[in-house]
Amino acid sequence: MANIKQIAKMASVSPATVSRVLNNHPYVSDAKRKAVLDAVECLNYSKNLNAIHLSKGKTNIVGVILPFINHAYFSKLLEGISSEALNANYQLMLCQTNYDPNEELKALDMLKMKQVDAIIVCSKILQWEQIEPYSKFGPLVACEDAGKPTISSVYLDHYSSFRMGMQYLIDRGHTRIGICLGRANSVNSLKRIRAYKDTLKAIQEPLREEWIFYQCLNIEDGVGVVHKILEMNERPTALMVTSDQVAAGIIIEAGKKRIEIPHDLAIIGFDNQPIAKMFDLTTIDNQLFTMGSLAFQIAHDQIMKKTQAPENRELEFRLIERSTVSRYRLRN
Amino acid sequence: MANIKQIAKMASVSPATVSRVLNNHPYVSDAKRKAVLDAVECLNYSKNLNAIHLSKGKTNIVGVILPFINHAYFSKLLEGISSEALNANYQLMLCQTNYDPNEELKALDMLKMKQVDAIIVCSKILQWEQIEPYSKFGPLVACEDAGKPTISSVYLDHYSSFRMGMQYLIDRGHTRIGICLGRANSVNSLKRIRAYKDTLKAIQEPLREEWIFYQCLNIEDGVGVVHKILEMNERPTALMVTSDQVAAGIIIEAGKKRIEIPHDLAIIGFDNQPIAKMFDLTTIDNQLFTMGSLAFQIAHDQIMKKTQAPENRELEFRLIERSTVSRYRLRN
DNA sequence: ATGAAAGCGCTAACAA
DNA sequence: TTGTTAGCGCTTTCAT
Fold first, then answer.
1. How many helices (H) and strands (E) does chain A have?
2. How many CA atoms lie within 13 A of A187 on its CB side?
3. Mean pLDDT on B110-121
4. A11, A18 in Cβ contact below 8 A?
5. What's the CA gap between A193 and A125, in Å, rounded?
6. What are phi and psi of B90, to 5 degrees?
7. For residue A190, what are the contacts with CB-CB under 8 A and spacing of at least 6?
8. Of all protein residues, which has its CA closest to the C1' atom of D7?
């Protein structure tokens, strides 16, 4: 592969001039510019990005840390990130961690090793305390409430959104409400559990631990939820399901088991994915695409030093009323 | 940030020795090794990957070209690629093209500019003739039948799989069969159209252009298909749907419109996604995960020069019999 | 407007 | 076993 020196020689100019032409710098005579361009053409020259990255100390790459790729939540988030990256002419380095702490650490190291200009954390298993030190090496943006003002973040108030959803159910006569969560210890789950408990207390309902379903991540997980409910003596009349996929799974399985929705079981989903619309599922839109694109924008701004201080953006949620919660009040 | 020279100075050794320690080379005395490691610790040193990449002329990164991220087909494929990458300690550079030829070209340039060691093309809009020249700069692996023995590929025989699916329907009494495709001009669609036409000819059925539904990519697209069918005087009794998501959409909408499946409309999906299982959808498994992991393996092998010649692997498909095609023969 | 030359930080061939 | 040194290919400052 040709390099800048060979171009210089062929065009009878210095490497510096070649560099200037290649980077559209001013102060190059048209004659020399043409000579360089011709040589580039002739030798089928291409820049070596590694050399550029080294020399500039910058890569135009942003790292994205996420546990799984094949999951609607992360796909939508990633789509938001990607669309902005495309916009800003940035590349994306994908780091799938499977929630393995070592993989997460390895991914963070990319920032330290200057392989990426910034990192976006979609979800993590490490404590923020372990992650925070890396912000010394470059912008770090979280797609959840990091709870640290020193780390930039884009997030939703999952406590409030959960309470709002529950209140919506309560207003329609529900008191026996169950919930489906993802990982038990994720930042979001913990907030939702708190919201759940606080709401129950407010309406003076007892907490039934068995009505909290964990590890509900994929559409298939909805099946298990329905089966468990069927085995219960005391069944919830409504479910807050923190994933539209899982909610869809519940609806499908409920249909097979002759549980009528919303009559026997009301359901509120989360994410407002396409599947929610298909099932006419009442859901809470948490703006994943926007979250992703904003996360990238913040990372990009920080790289460009437009903003110095960490930025923390809270997104609005909104409940989308559809048909999986009856609009009529339950008879008592 | 500290560099190798400073480590060398602090440990009173040469940069070369530091490099040796850092890369676990033999022939370093324990004393020096320890001194280096201490200095590394003390200065909180980290390698600069850009320097390493430049020096080695290799990056341990593979580029992945795909049109969309938020799409079940590509998510599953990407998951396969990613799992192998994790395995091989390789990073993934994601290049979303939106089927924009310029973006595709830019992504291919990464190979030329030595930013990636190889490229995996999940789907493309350019002609293979335009892509092929890039293989001069490094391994190029296609996740479809490139039709060029000079390009490595992992693919399914979509012609045969389509014919097999149609034969399955024919054996059960169907002759009025429609099909749902994605992009009209994709490599896979063209083969499927050919299979469709050949099969119709074989059973002496006329070709009805209106029974070929294009642009069926997402679950919502199933709605339109059902509506169009409802407006037809002559309706198909069965549908080959080249995406389980779309098939699911059709099933849902058909339910709303009181079209009974499989009685009024039999359906065969493609991909064998989780959603297919949920809907008990008869589908053709085309091994996306395997395709992805194999694509990475081939790319990796080529990088490591284990294999020189392009490798072309054909994957087996298999039909998964579930309930959206009746097992009983239709009465005539 | 142009060129010389000193980095950027690491690797590896060669010498010792 | 260790050090010296010449790359890797580009950018950028400083002269001119």
1. 13, 12
2. 19
3. 97
4. yes
5. 18
6. -110, 150
7. none
8. B55
Work out the pLDDT band at B176, boundaries 50, 70, 90: very high
Task: Find all residues with CB under 8 Å of A19, minimum gap 6, and list them.
Answer: A4, A25
Beta strands in chain B (DSSP E): 61-66, 91-96, 118-121, 140-142, 152-156, 177-180, 212-213, 238-241, 266-270, 283-285, 312-315, 318-320
Q: What is the pLDDT of residues B200-226, one digit of tens each?
A: 999 999 999 999 999 999 999 999 999
Residue count (chain A): 332
| β-pair type (A61-66, A91-96) | parallel
DSSP string, A171-218: HTT---EEEE-SSTTSHHHHHHHHHHHHHHHHTT----GGGEE----S
Phi, psi of B175 (to 5 degrees): -130, -20
Nearest to A322 by CA among A283, A273, A295, A266: A283
Task: Decide if B278 and A47 are in contact by the 8 Å CB cutoff.
Answer: no
Q: What is the mean pLDDT of chain B?
A: 95
Determine the average pLDDT of the residues in A185-214. Answer: 97
- Contact (CB, 8 A) for B273 and B241: no
- In whole angstroms, D5 C1' to A48 CA is 24
Percent of chain B with pLDDT over 70: 98
Nearest Cα residue to A116 out of B265, B71, B92, B188? B92
* pTM passes above 0.85: yes
* Arithmetic mean of pLDDT over chain A: 95
Two structure tokens written together for A181: 């969560």
Per-residue pLDDT of A304-322, as tens digits, reads 987 778 999 999 999 999 9
- Indicate which of A44, A58, A90, A91 best probes the interface with B, i.e. most B CBs within 10 Å of its own CB: A91
Asked if B278 is an interface residue toward chain A (Cβ–Cβ < 8 A), one would say yes
**How big is the CA angle at A189 (ends A185 and A190), to the nearest 5 degrees?**
70
Q: With contacts defined as CB-CB under 8 Å, which chain B residues touch A88?
A: none
Q: Quote the tokens at residue B136.
A: 């001069």
- What tokens appear for A163 in the block? 């309470």
Tens of pLDDT, residue by residue over B134-162, are 999 999 999 999 988 889 999 999 999 99
Contact at CB, B278 and A95, closer than 8 angstroms: no
Q: Which residue among B48, B70, B220 places its CB closest to the CB of A76?
A: B70
Tokens of A307: 């903003």
